[in-house]
Amino acid sequence: MDALIPPGTSAELLYTGAAWTEGPAWLPRTGRLRFSDIPNNRILDWDQASGETTVAHAEAEFANGRTLDQQGRIVQCSHGRRAIEREGADGGTEILVDRWEGGRFNSPNDVAVAADGSIWFTDPPYGLHPSGREGRPGPQDYEGCYVFRFDPGTGVASPVVTSMTHPNGIAFSPDGGTLYVSDTGFYGPHPEAKHILAFDVDGGHAAAGRVFATVPHGASDGFAIDREGRLWSSAGDGVYVYAPDGGLLGHVPIPETVSNVCFGGDDGSDLFITASSSLYRLRTLTTAPHPPTGL
Ligand code: MG
Predict the structure, then answer these.
(1) pLDDT of residue 293
(2) 168 CA distance to ligand 1 centroid (A)?
(3) Of 288, 238, 291, 236, which Cα lies nearest the Cα of 263?
């Protein structure tokens, strides 16, 4: 880990005061870290220059995970709209897709963009829970919880993984040849489902998954891949780092349950960590696979 994190470095608290943070994404043009505060139904921006955190969107329909597409636009998951949506330059959101074969999605949770520009997302049911804490209560329109691939060219979403309990975090390897998806059935009726699976990707298809890693505490809600293909995963007690072969490289303790991470900052080497009520930053010696780009 000394090759990955400057010795003596620990995570730095940037913001606290949320109910449950998720969905970090670095916005290069503005130098801001965008994240969701799902139960408070708002989207927050932490500004690198000022250190201030402000509300980017209130009444955000329980937005969850997000990423940037190949044009640098924000693509995000909406629990409330049961949709994948894209934010325009004016800050307004446009629904890209909200159904499959006529039925609505459950509550899209996290999203990644493939090398071919298609948008892959997970669809567990958390936003439909009767409590209404993270979305709009309601029934599932299809049995199960799938990973979908949305083709912006055709406007159609198709299932690519149908074998998981509650697929949640999602990311691609730097070469796009491997898809990683975590299962958080652990938090529901399937205590054994807390692993990260790896799938070989061939075009728009994912082969049968293999168990890549299982975090020792809690579950892997979300993760990020660095330029060498290492996987930095959230967990109940911090961040775990895995080599591309699944070997555990190390653990970075965080004093709150971690939901997700992303790389960002001016050179892409800062790991931003959403953790329960807070946002943290960890300086690292690696970077995101590609230089930060964004509108
Ligand atoms: Mg998630």
Answers:
(1) 60
(2) 5
(3) 288
CA angle (67, 226, 265) in 5-degree steps: 60
CA 259–ligand 1 middle distance (angstroms): 7
Distance between CA atoms of residues 283 and 266, nearest Å: 12
Task: Report residue 293: phi and psi, to 5°.
Answer: -135, 150
Note the pTM of the prediction, 2 decimals: 0.96
User: How far does residue 122's CA lie from ligand 1's centre (Å)?
Assistant: 9
Q: 206-225, pLDDT tens digit by residue?
A: 998 999 999 999 999 999 99
Domain ranges of the chain: 12-283
Domain 12-283 coded CATH 3.40.50.170: no
* 125-139 pLDDT tens trace: 999 999 999 999 999
Nearest to 24 by CA among 289, 271, 295: 271
Amino acid 291: pLDDT: 66
